[in-house]
Design brief:
mainly beta, Immunoglobulin-like, 3 domains, seven-stranded mixed β-sheet, seven-stranded mixed β-barrel, 31 strands
Length: 411
């Protein structure tokens, strides 16, 4: 698709006719104006980018028109014009959208001739960002972590951006409802809708501090259509972490997932992203690939958990050692309505590794139930699960058991 050139035109003198719109004409001549700078706020959770473009225009005293050509993937209802320099002297009186040619016209009135700073704001689709992490683990230094975050920004909006300040928004924004706009269409008489002067920026609000954060990229960047930009985001040094193996049991012979857990001691949240983990020598050379995984969004002061692959040096065996069905209840018609089931499970974990290993075991339990007993303490209990935690010596095997009672209601 042939790229369009986007610009603002200030209509001052002469006559301008729009192709494809019969009988629509404005008195004025065209002055081409390019944006001085642009700010992009890219929302990760929705396919939207807030574009704020600043222009310097020369206005004569009286009424005139400012024309804006909409980029193809723009939400036309989100476009607004804000007077920055002299809001007491320049008023936006009316806004008109012409869909057949993709243009918006603003009728403005200035109390005197002057140079005016204006800002055009709109939402556009097609720009996205994704964070990637390199995690470096030095096992000879108390498992110190180095976390390198970088971002990939992809532009498929159909528009080039130059001198752009880039802001990355993690979290879901609240978007105001679309507003109506005066529309001119061929063969239709649409009533004009006056837009209040200095129309506001489309509404974006935080839902909660923990759910929403803006990452500001330093400097100005060029972001061309159909291109990707790869930029450094941050570095977290000397993070102390804990290695844990987790059996979230789904079948006999399951190998545990490998988790590295650390506290986010930064003053900013860590965005969700894909991760590659490495074992690094004391000289800083990458020696061994730990694996690839994903890290969830983590607020400051919260615990981050990175899951990278499976560990085949640990194995669990789980078996049902006893089962009984009791306390049968029947209706007046001798139909079974309720009973209990008691189940006892034995789990044995073998550590084939030549090192001590911290292991978590999560058992998923559905329905209405109660714990009767367990041979080891329970670390955590929830409505649909129980969690055990134990430490296995090198090349040792540990077995434990627990018993639950389920209440089965048939009515």
């Amino acid at each position: 698709m042939k790229k369009r050139t986007y610009y603002l035109i200030l209509l001052i003198t002469g006559i301008l006719f729009f192709k494809g719109i019969t009988g629509f004409a404005l008195t004025g001549a065209c002055v081409l104006i390019s944006p001085q700078f642009t700010t992009l706020t890219i929302y990760q959770s929705v396919n939207l980018t807030l574009v704020q473009e600043n222009y310097l225009v020369g206005l004569k005293q009286g009424e005139c028109y400012i024309q804006f050509d909409l980029p193809e993937k723009t939400d036309s209802s989100s476009v607004s014009l804000r007077i920055i320099g002299h809001p007491d002297k320049v008023k936006v009186e009316e806004s008109t959208f012409i869909p057949s040619v993709g243009k918006i016209l603003w009728k403005v009135k200035s109390s005197q001739s002057l140079q005016e700073q204006i800002e055009v704001t709109y939402f556009i689709k097609g720009i996205s960002w994704q964070v990637y992490y390199d995690l470096e683990l030095n096992q000879n230094k108390d498992r110190a972590l180095y976390l390198y975050g970088w971002v990939s920004i992809e532009n498929k909006s159909g528009k080039d951006f130059t001198k752009a300040k880039i802001r990355l928004a993690a979290g879901k924004p609240h978007l105001a409802e679309k507003r109506e706009r005066k529309v001119l269409q061929k063969g239709k008489d649409i009533k004009a809708l006056k837009i209040i002067e200095n129309a506001a920026i489309p509404e974006i609000q935080k839902k909660a501090v923990a759910e929403y954060y803006i990452y500001q990229i330093k400097g100005e960047r060029e972001l061309k259509d159909e291109e990707k930009a790869h930029l450094n985001l941050f570095i977290c040094r000397n993070l102390s972490c804990e290695l844990t193996y987790t059996f979230d049991f789904t079948g006999e012979g399951e190998f545990p997932s490998v988790s590295y857990i650390f506290n986010n001691n930064q003053q900013f949240p860590l965005p969700a992203g894909y991760l590659t983990g490495w074992i690094v020598s004391e000289e800083g050379t990458k020696m061994e690939l730990l694996g690839r995984g994903r890290m969830d969004y983590t607020s400051p002061g919260k615990e981050a958990k990175i899951i990278i692959g499976k560990e085949e040096g640990l194995k669990i065996e789980r078996k049902l050692v006893s089962f009984s069905r009791d306390n049968l209840e029947f209706s007046s018609r001798k139909i079974l309505t309720e009973y209990t089931e008691q189940e006892k499970y034995e789990l044995c974990i073998k550590n084939f590794l030549k090192k001590e290993s911290k292991v978590k075991v999560i058992e998923r339990i559905t329905g209405e139930w109660m714990l009767i007993n367990s041979t080891i303490p329970i670390k955590k209990r929830q409505a649909n699960s129980i969690e055990f935690e134990l430490t296995l010596p090198p090349e040792e095997k540990i077995c434990f058991s627990y018993t639950i009672k389920k209440i089965i209601r048939l009515r």
